[in-house]
Write a structure and sequence with these properties.
The chain is 5% helix and 46% strand. By secondary structure, it is mostly beta strands. It has one domain: 6 Propeller (Neuraminidase), CATH 2.120.10. The strands form four sheets. Strands 1, 2, 15, 16, 17, 18, 19, 20 and 21 form a nine-stranded mixed sheet that branches. The chain has a four-stranded antiparallel sheet with strand order 3-4-5-6, with no helix packed on it. Strands 7-8-9-10 form a four-stranded antiparallel sheet, with no helix packed on it. A hairpin with a 2-residue loop joins strand 3 (53-59) and strand 4. The protein is globular.
């Protein structure tokens, strides 16, 4: 079983904005517009407090890391132990990886995490789906489904980001990034996710210091050497792709994504059957 198949849960799709598949050096947009391309490498920083780190959120005290647990079927397929309980943790660490706080939520297969209004927002990718708004004492304040779907099942997510008082959600069902008012839970803006046949899946999103939206794209790799991962840079108002970045071979596999102190930060959940040397690491992404 491929690692990203677990995390995608049906989200893998080839959905673009009408762009041709990228080529080395440039990609072509409608009308012949060229999209700049870059390369990325990764540098390991510290290990997360536990397996499997799958989402990140920056807070004033440090970095929140969300855990993803395997379902019983996933654990069986991978030969892993079945988690004794399905509740998942969010760990607050300092920038050296020291554990400061742990919060437990009813989220399942957590694949999105945001920090805002002195709460964490954990996005589930398995039933009961939706977002869990949790205070600093692990109290569940609200459980909300992703808007514009069924009232009891708005589908899963693959990323979340708090930006300028709004919650951004990488919605798997809609195959797009949705900006939501976190108080009224009203959807405000929808941007389709850019993918290619080579990188048909997506993960977390974040904003850089200039206000551009960045998101992880990838493939359904069956081994570390077969991994193909990239970053997409968007204009967050129009959804226009500004830049594409490809990771060099044999790098950490990004799932969570944050921007902090001038650098992109990510995490690699890893699976032991793949023999990855990066499993459980938080790492920096450097773009050239």
């Amino acid at each position: 079983m491929k690692r990203r198949e677990f995390l995608a849960t049906g989200a893998v799709a080839t959905l673009g904005l009408g762009f041709n598949a990228p080529k080395v050096g440039v990609a072509q947009a409608p009308g012949g517009r060229k999209i700049a391309r870059g390369k990325a490498t990764t540098t390991r920083l510290f290990k997360s407090p536990g397996m499997y780190p799958n989402a990140l959120a920056v807070a004033p005290e440090g970095l929140w890391i969300a855990q993803l647990k395997l379902s019983a079927q996933q654990a069986k397929n991978l030969g892993e132990p079945v988690p004794p309980d399905r509740d998942e943790a969010a760990w607050l660490v300092d920038w050296n990886g020291k554990l400061l706080k742990t919060i437990i939520a009813h989220s399942r297969t957590t694949s999105g995490l945001a920090y805002g209004n002195n709460c964490i927002w954990m996005g589930a990718n398995s039933d009961p789906q939706g977002f869990f708004q949790i205070d600093m004492e692990s109290k569940e304040l609200r459980h909300l489904q992703i808007p514009l779907g069924q009232p009891e099942n708005g589908g899963g997510c693959h990323g979340a980001q708090w930006h300028n008082g709004k919650l951004w959600i990488a919605s798997n069902r809609m195959r797009g990034n949705l900006r939501v008012d976190p108080v009224t839970w009203t959807p405000e803006l929808f941007l389709p996710i850019y993918t290619t046949p080579e990188q048909p899946s997506w993960h977390d999103l974040t904003f850089d210091k200039d206000g551009f939206l960045w998101q992880i794209n990838g493939n359904d790799s069956a081994s570390v050497g077969a991994n193909s991962t990239g970053l997409v840079k968007y204009d967050p108002e129009s959804g226009q792709v500004v830049q594409l970045v490809d990771f060099e071979p044999a790098q950490c596999d990004p799932h969570g994504l944050e921007y902090h102190d001038g650098a992109f930060i990510s995490c690699d959940p890893g699976w032991r059957d793949l023999g990855s040397p990066y499993s459980g690491w938080v790492f920096r992404i450097d773009i050239a």
